[in-house]
Each structure stands twice: as structure tokens, then as C-alpha cells.
């Protein structure tokens, strides 16, 4: 299966065929089921500022995940909290793992 990379150049879009899972250095990707688009960021944004922003966001997400995991590892909390609250915390913790991994991959692609 071939995938396409989007190249933004002077407000125009260009499509380029790329191999599946081919990482584009200095780019971000947008993934929806069945489609993965890479958008080159060179000359469009300040890469160091974007890495800093992503790192800051990642740290906030990690802090939230630690807090949630502490609750989930607290036997007293699990015994007293309503089941729906515990389920929401588990789901949010799972979502945070995916978001953190996504941010880390984005940082890695900018290197």
C-alpha cells in the first residue's frame, strides 16, 4: 500500500507518494484510520519552539498520568470510589498513554 505525504509550499498542496510507515524527518503526521499524512515543517515553523511546546505538553500529560495511576494504585480509593469514576480514570489514563506516545514520536520526528 502506498501512502501520500503532503507538502505545503507557498499556500499550495503537493502530494508525493511515500512508502508505508516511512517517517519524514522534520515533519508532523496526521493519522486517521487508513490514512497517514506527513506535513513537512521546515521553513514553516520554528522547530526548536515546536519541540519545546511538545515537550511541555508531554510533561503535563505525564504528570496527569502519574496522578491518575496513583489513584488507581490506591486500594482505599478503589474500594470507596464509585465504579463509574474508577472506569473514567482508567480510560483517561489509557488515553494519556496514547497522547504521550504521540507527542514523543512528534518530538523524535523533529530531530
Structural description of this entry:
With 111 residues, this protein is an alpha+beta fold. The chain folds into 2 domains: 3-40, no CATH class; 47-110, Helix Hairpins (Orthogonal Bundle). The chain contains 3 helices and 4 strands, in the order ββββααα. The protein has helices at 47-72, 75-80, 83-110, and strands at residues 3-9, 12-18, 27-32, 35-40. It has a two-stranded antiparallel sheet with strand order 1-2. It has a two-stranded antiparallel sheet with strand order 3-4. Helix 1 packs antiparallel against helix 3. The two termini are 27 Å apart. The relative contact order is 0.14. The model is unreliable at 1-7 and 10-14 (pLDDT under 50).
* Counted beta strands: 4
State the end-to-end CA separation.
27 Å
Oligomer: single chain
Helix content: 40-55%
CATH class of the largest domain: Mainly Alpha
- Level-2 CATH architecture of the largest domain: Orthogonal Bundle
- Give the count of helical stretches: 3
Q: Let me know the average pLDDT.
A: 80
The helix/strand class is alpha+beta
Q: How many domains is the backbone divided into?
A: 2
Helix/strand order, N-terminal first: EEEEHHH
Would you identify the regions where 5 or more consecutive residues have pLDDT less than 50?
1-7, 10-14
CATH topology assignment of the largest domain: Helix Hairpins
Biggest beta sheet summary: 2 strands, antiparallel
Mass-distribution shape: elongated
Amino acid at each position: 500500500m502506498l501512502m501520500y505525504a503532503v507538502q505545503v509550499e507557498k499556500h499550495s498542496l503537493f502530494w508525493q507518494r511515500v512508502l508505508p510507515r516511512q517517517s519524514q524527518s522534520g515533519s508532523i503526521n496526521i493519522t486517521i484510520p487508513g490514512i497517514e499524512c506527513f506535513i513537512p515543517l521546515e521553513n514553516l515553523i520554528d522547530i526548536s519552539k515546536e519541540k519545546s511546546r511538545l515537550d511541555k505538553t508531554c510533561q503535563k500529560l505525564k504528570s496527569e498520568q502519574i496522578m491518575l495511576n496513583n489513584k488507581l494504585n490506591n486500594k482505599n480509593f478503589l474500594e470507596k470510589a464509585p465504579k463509574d469514576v474508577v472506569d473514567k480514570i482508567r480510560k483517561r489514563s489509557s488515553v494519556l498513554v496514547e497522547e504521550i506516545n504521540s507527542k514523543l514520536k512528534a518530538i523524535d520526528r523533529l530531530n
